[in-house]
Amino acid sequence: MLIKAMMVAAAAAPVLAGVAWAADAGRGRALAQQRCAGCHNIDGGARSARRSAPSFSEIARQSGFSADQLSITLTYGHVPMGDGRVGPGEAGDLAAYIVSLRRR
Ligand code: HEC
Description:
By secondary structure, the protein is an all-alpha fold. The chain contains 6 helices and no strands. The protein has helices at about 1-10, 15-20, 25-35, 55-60, 65-75, 90-100. The longest helix has 14 residues, at about 90-100. It binds heme C. Heme C binds next to α3 and α5. Heme C binds near residues 35, 40, 59, 84 and 86.
């Protein structure tokens, strides 16, 4: 059942990534620790390990920011990450986590 749901989500256009998946901010945080913390500050603080990388709280506060838009950015990868693309489900989780930082 879950596999089937995952296949449906994967088949949907990547644009729907943030919508088609039940995003989980807790999973997003764990992913961020593994995949993003090397460059970005992921905990709501301002200083990132890599100076040119905005902290996640800065990203969350950008005007026009939305979880859907962020999922799309992450699905296609951003330039400094090179091959660091994430799957649609992962992107939704990460986006949900980053959005959650905005309220702090
Ligand atoms: C190798 C270092 C590195 C890693 C790892 C990395 N980033 Fe970045 N990221 C950067 C830099 C540098 C920038 C600023 C330059 C830019 O926007 O292209 C950035 C910008 C961003 C932006 C701003 C949006 C954009 O592309 O303009 C988002 C969102 C982002 N990163 C999310 C993530 C997430 C989520 C992860 C983990 C899956 C991650 N990054 C991992 C270096 C990194």
